Amino acid sequence: MRPTASPSGRTAASDAVRLVGLTRTYGIAPREVAALREVSTTFPACSFSAIMGPSGSGKSTLLHCAAGLDQPTGGQVLVGGVDLSTLSERERTELRRDRLGFVFQSFNLIASLTAAQNVALPIRLSGRRPPQEWTREVLTLVGLGERMHRRPAELSGGQQQRVAIARALAVQPEVIFADEPTGALDSRSGRDVLALLRRLVDERGHTVVMVTHDPFAASHADRVLFLSDGVLVDELCSPDSRSVAARLAELETA
Ligand SMILES: Nc1ncnc2c1ncn2[C@@H]1O[C@H](COP(=O)(O)OP(=O)(O)OP(=O)(O)O)[C@@H](O)[C@H]1O
Ligand SMILES: [Mg+2]
Questions:
Q1: Alpha-carbon separation of residue 25 from 1, 37, 52 (angstroms)
Q2: Is 53 near ligand 1, meaning CB less than 6 Å away?
Q3: How would CATH label the architecture of 14-105+177-253?
């Protein structure tokens, strides 16, 4: 695990990720789509941020650019102060692999591998041999130590998502990006996953950036950023479900 379970050992005052004038257009003029327009914000270390907005407002694009999975057409992404655009393809891949974790709505686990093997995979891909006690420890952290030898089909949706989170955690990333991690889950499993993400921030000092459509999910974050048509239009700190839902409804009818 991290050298210390206490967030105080981390650079709490620093920015884990900083976006400066982030712009992403798809396609070629005159048919181009501006998915993000000059978005600037910071995700402080050891914080939990939610990103909301109507469908097509640019949430996934923002997450993919911030995580180095997609290349912006303008502006900068800084991870721990490092400007991703100054890195070679290989350096970017290494930074992503070693310092960032990504969780998808559809889990994306490999069906033929057990939970433990899925969790160990990113470490294997980076050319190291994950100790078995390490994969057990990470799976125990997400409440699945007893089920480490099960395959995804033998686990519930919520359990599969927790395996996916454990896989993202395996490399001890500074930042975990999650795109609608509770979107495919029932409300009870969704609550388990949200409580886990909250705990990773509070107890282990990770930084979480989560896209969600659900005001209840967003209320677990320290703040909510609202996107509309690729523009960052608002921000709510210490959000509660009701005020998040009200702001989202305004944007959806705008
Ligand atoms: N690969 C692509 N090629 C062309 N246009 C794209 C591509 N990816 C996204 N877009 C467009 O960019 C805009 C933002 O898409 P994005 O997926 O970021 O939205 P979103 O807010 O995540 O939506 P949802 O809530 O439906 O997941 C949309 O208009 C979308 O059609
Ligand atoms: Mg999306």
A1: 39, 8, 19
A2: yes
A3: 3-Layer(aba) Sandwich (3.40)
pTM exceeds cut of 0.70: yes
pLDDT tens digits, residue range 42-100? Answer: 999 999 999 999 999 999 999 999 999 999 999 999 999 999 999 999 999 999 988 99
Tell me the domain boundaries of the chain.
Answer: 14-105+177-253
- 3 state DSSP class of 219: coil
Kindly list the distances between the CA atom of residue 85 and the CA atoms of 26, 127, 230, in Å, as whole numbers in the listed order.
18, 25, 21
Cα 85 to chain centroid distance, Å, stands at 20
24 ligand 1 Cβ < 6 A: no
Nearest partner of 145 among 126, 129, 132, 131, judged by Cα:
132
**Which residue's alpha carbon is at the smallest distance from atom 2 of ligand 1?**
26
